[in-house]
């Protein structure tokens, strides 16, 4: 993938996420109860709302903050690097081993042979 294409994609992601956060922040100020219901509904997609030690007041206000914006940008930009395209080099995606240690996928290649992953023995 060309560098220009990556720059354009990152710029579009920046604009999209910035607009999303700005609109969300404005709506949180104008309609706090409606946004609380919306955020709690989004939290139902994960286990965050079922944890009794983790109330909305602990995590809800962090939505649409600068930290939130920077985190979402980091994740979305990182995903751009994980795309694979036919005829191009594979991405060197980070992976964790069974001990939780982080590596990169190319760390497991030997002598430029293709990497074959066998998940059949992991049952």
Automatic annotation (TrEMBL):
Top-level taxon in the UniProt lineage = Eukaryota
Q: Which residues cross the membrane?
A: 12-31
The keyword Transmembrane appears for this protein:
yes
Q: Which GO terms describe its biological process?
A: hormone biosynthetic process; thyroid hormone catabolic process
Q: Give a yes or no for keyword Oxidoreductase in this entry.
A: yes
What UniProt keywords apply to this chain's record, in alphabetical order?
Membrane, Oxidoreductase, Selenocysteine, Thyroid hormones biosynthesis, Transmembrane, Transmembrane helix
Q: Which reaction does it catalyse?
A: 3,3'-diiodo-L-thyronine sulfate + iodide + A + H(+) = 3,3',5-triiodo-L-thyronine sulfate + AH2; 3,3'-diiodothyronamine + iodide + A + H(+) = 3,3',5'-triiodothyronamine + AH2; 3-iodo-L-thyronine + iodide + A + H(+) = 3,3'-diiodo-L-thyronine + AH2; 3,3',5'-triiodo-L-thyronine sulfate + iodide + A + H(+) = L-thyroxine sulfate + AH2
- Please give the Gene Ontology molecular function terms for this protein: thyroxine 5'-deiodinase activity
What does the sequence similarity comment in the record state about its family? Answer: Belongs to the iodothyronine deiodinase family.
Q: Function, please?
A: Responsible for the deiodination of T4 (3,5,3',5'-tetraiodothyronine).
Q: What is this protein called?
A: Iodothyronine deiodinase
């Amino acid at each position: 993938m060309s560098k220009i294409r990556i720059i354009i994609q990152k710029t579009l992601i920046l604009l999209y996420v910035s607009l999303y956060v700005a609109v969300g922040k404005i709506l949180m100020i104008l309609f706090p109860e409606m946004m609380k219901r919306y955020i709690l509904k989004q939290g139902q997609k994960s286990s965050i709302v079922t944890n009794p030690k983790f109330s909305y007041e602990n995590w809800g206000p962090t939505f649409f903050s600068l930290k939130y914006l920077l985190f979402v940008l980091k994740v979305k930009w990182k995903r751009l690097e994980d795309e694979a395209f036919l005829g191009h080099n594979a991405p060197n995606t980070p992976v964790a081993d069974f001990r939780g240690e982080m590596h990169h996928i190319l760390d497991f290649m030997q002598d430029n042979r293709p990497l074959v992953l066998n998940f059949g023995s992991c049952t």
